[in-house]
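Methods — Computational structure assignment.
A single polypeptide chain was analysed. Its primary sequence is given first, followed by the predicted tertiary structure written as structure tokens.
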Amino acid sequence: MAQQSDARFSTWEKPLRILAATFTAALGIALIVVPLSTQQTTVCIGIGLIIVGFTLVLEPGQHDPDVHSVGSFILTRFGRAVGAAMVAFGLLLTFWPDAGAPWLAAMVALSLILHGIASAILTFRGDADNRVAGLLIALAGIALGFLAFSWPVLTIAIFKLAVGAWFIFTGLRALFLLWRNQRSERAATTNTSLSRVSRWARTIGAALALVLAVGASWGSAQILGGTPLPTPDDFYLAPDQLPTSPGQLIRTEPLSTGVPSGAQAWKMLYTTTLPDGSAGVSSGTILAPANRDGQELPLLTVSHGTTGVIDGCAPSLSATPFADGAGTAMQQMVTEHGWVAVTSDYSGMGTTGTAAYLVGEAEARNVLDASRAARQFEELSISSATVIWGHSQGGQGSLWTAQRSADYAPELTILGTAAFAPAADLYGLADADKNNAAGKTVSAYIAYTWNQLYPELNLEAQLTPGSQGPVQRISQLCFNGSDAIAAILRGTQVPNQIFPDSMLAGDFGKKLKDQTPVGPFPAPVLVAQGLADPLVLPSMQQKWVNERCDAGEVIDYRTFEGLSHVSLVAADSPLTPQIVEWTLDRWRGDPAAKQCSSKSYPSTKSTGAEQ
């Protein structure tokens, strides 16, 4: 009876294996070459896992005359258990493609790892010719599985290429093994040279697959891990006896890293007012022309854009401390026109405490106090009249600095404020960008810092499920240099929006709206916006401009076709010469517009037409 059962099994086993291997390879090709939606990709991967798992279930057991030992029996049962699990995962993927990327990716990853382990164990039952190649491809599958765990959101959409290649390799390898076994049964002898070439081809192919999978896993770890951050030294520590007045210079230190040719730079530590109103310290930088004749120099007050929210992300600690935002234009103002540029790191970055990320009042105090302190630096004579610049977060900060200057630092005379892609409508930004990678990164910075600044909001407990871990990881990455890539990619791995809509509609949303700069602004205001900006959306910026104009503020609004959030302030941007000239006009006292104006510029030219 057992022999009849074995015979029936052998009769239909081989055709099923051929069909399964062929279909697996075909699915792999489809995943690579056919445009598929995320749901279609998920279904194809699910079907592929079902088929691959089914082939493991079909592994020969007691019916196989060559498999009688207890060890082989256990190995066979293990392989079939893995195959059954893969079939189950595949069914879930196939019939539940909208379950959510992290869960789907986890199933794919676990399937690849389990299949790799089972394949690695089962290779030791076969002949020596296939053992090395089988073990290498099994290890490649395991590495690919761990790679999928690292990229839970991207796995289904992007890593379909890697999964497709794995399906192709698995299917073709199964077909080859079936062909070879059939050939061995029919021929008493084989061509030795052909057999040797075949063995080497299989081994080399498997080794290449392993190298690629391990390389991708290692590369992912390097990218997602970010770069080692600098550690603030004793320079950034507050003295035991802290001056009680804000804007007092405590100490300076020459800075040589990243200083443009023709300039001289220093780090500084100074007193400021913390978000809770208490006295504290902040650090910053002073950038001055190397050649100066002792005359009073014009002051450029700079509010820097997002670089992170922890100590090591302070611009003064960066390898490129003067590259933020419109860095090229700032360097021109210093080296070609003889200005002094002063930038605050913001309190809690470099210095101890919590960074008040995108908290307008705190940014304004830090920025104004930096300019106050720099004017006490004995090596320079700096004017009390200043123009304020800022990009992105710094754009919001520059507008807040202007509107708070008269009350907080009346000794400074504001000649003008230039804001480049400012995060002026923080509530609108949080709502509009809640589902894209950059928006989730910004949201993570807000969640991490505001949870400490505003404990009454209890933010951490209200974040969407699964967001707490990514928020913590993203918060430890800077948003400059190669770390910016890691921060954005970490943002892609957050499965849902970080702040649920219920939070945006409650007290947290009100706090976001409180960060909108509304004026009054004491001097002319220039706002520049790229029309291809995916973060600070042009429609959102236009709405803010319209509201300020309706309220009686005068805004010189300039838009640039084809420019994004970063390219707007790039060296070759048409905005670069415009902001230099606009700033010089403010210093010369040239007349500014008396009413709101709007101009649009092509991305390759610096001339525009009235809209």
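Note: The chain has a mean pLDDT of 81.
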